[in-house]
Design a protein that fits this description.
This is DUF1643 domain-containing protein. By secondary structure, the chain is of the alpha/beta class. The chain contains six helices and eleven strands. A seven-stranded mixed β-sheet has the order 4-1-2-5-3-6-7, with no helix packed on it. Strands 8-9 form a two-stranded antiparallel sheet. Strands 10-11 form a two-stranded antiparallel sheet.
């Protein structure tokens, strides 16, 4: 299994630590393999403890460097290696984005902090989202977890609007509600294994390797609907916009009716 390095940037805002510009790097290529959107950075920190502690205790506003690889990043590495299992020489970057960039290992506390500075974080998100869609990511794995409080919906809607605007290819393992997408790294090892297998199957159903161009992915004529499909295709649109509950790419809406539809029920 190929092992990546992880890089990212931290900055301070209102005495809080934010993380941005984070990616897993395989090899030397700067090409985007894809992107994942999760909840928040958790306990992420620099690999160098000395540099990290110096940043925390100094007046330094921003720092960029190599990060420690946490369990979630290890799981994402498994997912990507599984996707590229027949291509040991693959290279590139998997970018990590968050509903909110606030670093805090305590999820409940971080959500409370989010509610206190929600307006500022949403403004930060605007800059992050603008930078995100300048990278040309071929796809987005939605993986921000389940059972989020109502106050986080503002950030989810912010990302939903951007994903729809840029006609992004999206997929993920759906939970029970339209806003739920399972986190990549559940506590139990068996659940981690199942997640990897499920995501790899979903990915394979959505993409196929182009036989003509090396390393080029081509979207398959497959619709991924991770729960029961709608009775009528008009339900896929609300005011002309794709909703998260459909769980598939906005790009596919342009070819509805032109190809046979395959439903992958989860």
């Amino acid at each position: 299994m190929k092992k990546p390095k992880v890089f990212g940037a931290f900055y301070k805002m209102d005495d809080k630590i934010m993380r941005t510009q984070t990616y897993l790097q395989w090899g030397t290529s700067k090409k985007s393999i894809g992107a994942v959107i999760m909840s928040n950075p958790g306990s992420s920190q620099l690999k160098s403890t000395q540099e990290w502690n110096s940043f925390l205790t100094s007046n330094q506003d921003r720092i960029v460097g190599e990060l420690s690889i946490d369990p979630t990043m290890k799981q994402l590495n498994r997912v990507i290696n599984g996707i590229y299992i027949n291509k040991e020489d693959f290279e590139g970057r998997l970018y990590i984005y968050n509903l909110f960039p606030l670093r805090n290992p305590n999820v409940d506390f971080s959500r409370k902090e989010f509610s206190l500075i929600e307006d500022k974080i949403l403004k930060e998100n605007e800059l992050i989202i603008e930078e995100c869609f300048s990278q040309g990511h071929p796809w987005f794995l939605l993986a921000w977890g389940c059972n989020h409080p109502q106050r986080l919906k503002s950030s989810m809607k912010q990302w939903n609007k951007a994903l729809t605007k840029y006609n992004a290819v999206i997929f993920g393992k759906r939970g029970r509600t339209e806003w739920d997408y399972y986190h990549p790294s559940p506590p139990l090892q068996q659940a981690k294994d199942v997640y990897c297998e499920d995501i790899q199957l979903i990915y394979q159903s959505m993409f196929k390797q182009s036989k003509k161009t090396k390393d080029k992915l081509k979207v398959s004529k497959t619709f991924y609907i991770p729960s029961k499909g709608p009775e009528d295709w008009k339900d896929l649109l609300v005011n002309g916009e794709k909703q998260f509950k459909t769980g598939y790419s906005a790009k596919t809406l342009d070819i509805v009716g032109a190809h046979k539809m395959i439903f992958l029920l989860m």
